[in-house]
Amino acid sequence: MTTQSASEKSSIWFANPDLAAMNAGGKNTALEALGIQITEIGPDYIRGTMPAEPRTFQPFGLVHGGCNVVLAETLGSVGANLVVDNSQYYCVGQEVNANHLRGVRSGTVTGTATLLHAGRTSQVWSIELRDDAGKLSCISRLTMAVVPIPKTSRG
């Protein structure tokens, strides 16, 4: 029996993701306002970061839970749209939940999104957020709707 390294595994993405284009798409959005960046795309995951600094803090000097959710939903949303043929479908969030496990006061929050389920009309993603020490700070689950683009709107 042979095993595949992570770089040899087949990818879940419909097309080859363009990291620069994804980050450019965040201009003038909540992503830019919060400093969220997509940093890595593996064969079956997407990773991004958000600074732990005053613009992402709540009044007690911890990363705001809502900012954690924005990072988590961003990563799952980007991933979901990379899995489908964008000439026929787009994906939008239906439900997101988050368990905030540990406060983050400085550094960077790094999130990793992995696909748990890819169905005909929905996807489910798991997103783990970690601090600079690698400690789990938040776990989130995101359900995405896979929406067909009306035939009259297709090119």
Q: What does this molecule look like?
A:
The chain is an alpha+beta fold. It has a single domain, classed as Hotdog Thioesterase (Thiol Ester Dehydrase, Chain A, Roll), CATH 3.10.129.10. About 20% of the residues lie in helices and about 35% in strands. It is built from three helices and six strands. The protein has helices spanning about 20-25, 30-35, 65-85; strands at about 35-40, 45-50, 90-100, 110-120, 120-130, 135-150. Strands 1-2-4-5-6-3 form a six-stranded antiparallel beta sheet. A hairpin with a 3-residue loop joins strand 1 and strand 2 (about 45-50). The longest helix has 19 residues, at about 65-85. It is globular, with a radius of gyration of 16 Å. Residues about 1-10 have low confidence and may be disordered.
